Amino acid sequence: MAAARKTREPKYVYFFGAGKADGNEAMKNLLGGKGANLAEMAGHPQLRLPVPPGFTITTEVCTWYTRHRAYPKPLRVQVEKALARVEQITGKQFGSAENPLLLSVRSGARRSMPGMMDTVLNIGLTERTIEGLIRQTGNPRFAYDAYRRLIMMYSDVVMEKAGGLTPKDGKGIRKILDERLEQVKHARGYASDTELTVDELRALVGEFKQIVRDVLGQPFPDDPQAQLWGGIGGVFASWNGKRAVEYRRIEKIPDEWGTAVNVQSMVFGNMGEDSATGVAFTRNPGTGEAQFYGEYLVNAQGEDVVAGIRTPAPINEYSKNAQSAHLPTLESLMPKLYRELYDIQRRLERHYRDMQDIEFTIERGKLYMLQCRVGKRNGVAAVRMAVEMYKSRLIDARTAIQRVQPNQLVELLLPMLDPKAELAAAPIAKGLPAGPGGAKGRVVFHSHDAVAWAGRGEPVILVREETSPEDVDGMHKAQAILTSKGGMTSHAALVARGWGKCCIVGCGDIAIAEDGKSFKTKNGAVVREGEWISLNGTKGLVYQGSLPLVDVDLEHNAAYRELMKLVDKVRVLGVRTNADTPKDAAQAVRFGAEGIGLFRTEHMFYGEGSDQPLFLLRKMIMSRTEAERRRALDELFPFVKRDIKNTLEVMEGRPVTIRLLDPPLHEFVPHDPEKLAALGRELGVDGAELQKRAESLRENNPMLGHRGVRLGVTYPEITEMQIRAILEAAAELLKAGQKAAPEIMIPVTCTVNELQHQKAIAERVHREVCAQFGLKKIPHLYGTMIEIPRAALTAGRMAETAEFFSFGTNDLTQMGFGFSRDDIGAFLPDYLNGKLLPADPFQTIDQEGIGELIRLGIERGRKTRPKLKVGICGEHGGDPDSVVFCHRVGMDYVSCSPFRVPIARLAAAHAALGK
């Protein structure tokens, strides 16, 4: 009975290698992306690629380790068994002095977090095993190079970071060891690590160990098992490292996911001229072109490629750039191995049906695959890949749509440097185009400065020799990134590509000064901290000064047009725009808007050409009697009608929701003495009387004061003028044989009685305008903006009069939370950092609270009026998560700024596909 009751031991370790694997690609939640793909490459019958054997410790162990700072009891035995299988396959023994097995320990979350967690290579090297490695390889220089790399990584990842030690004087152990390495190279006149001799490396290993003891207060471990378990713990601990936490915040990756740990037998790309390591993509991640693209280094380990320490060589002619054009390709240097790699990458793309990012190592003429994952790509490349894979029948339409994230379309809409300005300016430097679009900003040289300057509202460009994962926060805050070193597979390029950020890497034309406060170009130009530069990320060009930016032309992007055809076939939710001018409306239509969800009448009193209508509005506001107000309104009327008519005309019969005057009147009162005096002369009153009238308009809490529908109740003539302007504009277009579909929206309502009061005015004006133009009717809708919680809760009554609801989610959020959106900067960051709120409720609809008000409002409104049209017109209309919510609750449309219309269309398609 006791045996029967015994539960099965949890499985924490999954083996892969020699054509077999315990896991597969579908197990990413448990094995992480890297572990699942290693298992797939090693064990899937259609692949069985040359993957060095190893095993994956699951994400469940990370969760356990984070909680208990210890491992579950069965783990050590399971690791020992898996390690024995690796030893059997390789014919080597971990810790052996005769034939040692060395291991790598790498992270692997279920979603790629490039460079954000830690890795330790060459684990198992000790004073005892290094002699065995020398005998095994016949290459003492290689052995000591591997040993010094282990000391540098392990002391940093395990002893300092995971050990919770604070670097002295802000300088970590890795930096100290790097500086000592550079001192030795400089003293010998070496340009590259590969020039160091075996004696120099042996001496460095001894020096490094002494530095570690002196700085960290403990000796470097000389026991292979201690190194292995230290490495495993170090990688698990890096899940909660500062840069990983910050990256998860930016990418919205849940903290509770955890990382897996992959322990794998080492293969070496630094064993001589017949060895190499590289990173490649099955398609170009910057453009989406269906060309095998990558970089490699001879006699190097993988970290050398992504770190940008040496200029990597191109794997083929297609991958060449200005910096690597003189270097031999892998295809020409090792043609047989290149053909094998080329065949593998094609098989991987067909197998995964997506672009793959692969890492490989060549050890003494033998190719090994170390990793494959879905490759990060910018928005331009994502759209092109999705469409071309769909056309080639590699994926279906549903998959093509889901391959492109809505916010990736931002990159296609990114401004670029004005071509005319570029023609008139000479570039001061050229690098590799790692991130598209144009950007301009003030130069900063440190990540913390980028964060601080951006926090003050300064646009900055982060300039570095190369970036590291520690720079992630500054990279995110910067407008663009410029590095003097590194290639298209470097850390800066990879991260910028994932974020769709303008980026130029490998810009060897610039040299950063020793004090880190300026850089100098080859042609002698000096750019200091705080000075402006402009980047063309598409061409890799750097300009001095601030060049103007212009919008891109989507109409000539064939891949984008094809994708949006697929999008519009599947989405159910309509997409409108918030536009106040004919120019904005026309732009939105070009972006695919199906109407205007919010035309704000007050916006005609701001900006270009607004002086005269604004003066007349102020005259109306400062009037004392209805007669004075009506005279001012009569003068204002032609301007209001003109702007409405021009916008209706541009929309060519598409619905246009026109919100009547919303802000409190005191917002329009001038403060300039000259303008006040002119207003007084027009009204025939002196300054004292005018000041008295202005003061009478001021309110203690204008947000909840005399605004919106309340103005129309107090001053019905204001409502009358606006509705007359709307209906006459529509009538004139109809009489001219054109189409017009106005929708009159009453703002800030809280009771159906307000709607009925204003509708009586609308019906009377409609009769008068029809008689004036000889029309039976002017097609239009009458509705309201739901932005007060009471209006949402009493939506059933509101729908007795309203033919449509437009949820004003900005004010509904403000009133629902009791947050002033103008003042949240003082506390909202604390709420988000402390996870008191999952997201900024003014950016993404709070589904638990505000979302419930919306759901109730729709449900109750449609119970009264089944065909009630419903949409939203707050900023949330362009937020992908909010668009998905709107689809789910049954809205008819969302409305957003013209720029975000394509994003909303794609998000609506994702929602329709259940993503």
Average pLDDT level: 92
- What is the radius of gyration computed over CA atoms, rounded to a whole number of angstroms? 33 Å
- Silhouette: elongated
- How far the N terminus sits from the C terminus, by CA atoms, comes to 48 Å
In terms of DSSP E residues, the strand content is 15-25%
User: Count of helices?
Assistant: 36
Question: What does this protein structure show overall?
Answer:
- The structure is a single chain.
- The protein is α/β, with parallel strands linked by helices and 915 residues long.
- 45% of the residues lie in helices and 16% in strands.
- Helix 6 runs parallel beside helix 8, helix 28 (716-735) packs across helix 29 (752-773) and helix 35 (880-888) packs across helix 36 (901-912).
- The strands form 6 sheets. Strands 13-23-22-15-16-17-18-14 form an 8-stranded mixed β-sheet. It has an 8-stranded parallel beta barrel with strand order 25-26-27-28-29-30-31-32, surrounded by 7 helices. Strands 2-1-3-6-4-5 form a 6-stranded antiparallel β-sheet, with helices on both faces.
Strand-helix topology:
Elements: H1 2-5, E1 13-17, E2 20-21, H2 28-43, E3 54-57, H3 59-68, H4 75-90, E4 103-109, E5 120-123, H5 129-137, H6 140-162, H7 173-188, H8 198-216, H9 224-238, H10 242-251, E6 259-265, E7 276-281, E8 293-298, H11 302-307, E9 313-314, H12 330-333, H13 335-352, E10 356-363, E11 366-374, H14 379-391, H15 397-403, H16 409-413, E12 416-417, H17 419-424, E13 429-430, E14 432-435, E15 438-444, H18 447-455, E16 460-464, H19 472-477, E17 480-483, H20 491-499, E18 502-505, E19 510-512, E20 518-521, E21 526-528, E22 532-536, E23 541-544, E24 549-550, H21 558-570, E25 574-578, H22 582-590, E26 596-600, H23 611-621, H24 626-651, E27 655-659, H25 673-683, H26 687-697, H27 709-714, H28 716-735, E28 741-746, H29 752-773, E29 781-786, H30 789-793, H31 795-798, E30 804-807, H32 809-817, H33 828-833, H34 850-864, E31 869-872, H35 880-888, E32 893-896, H36 901-912
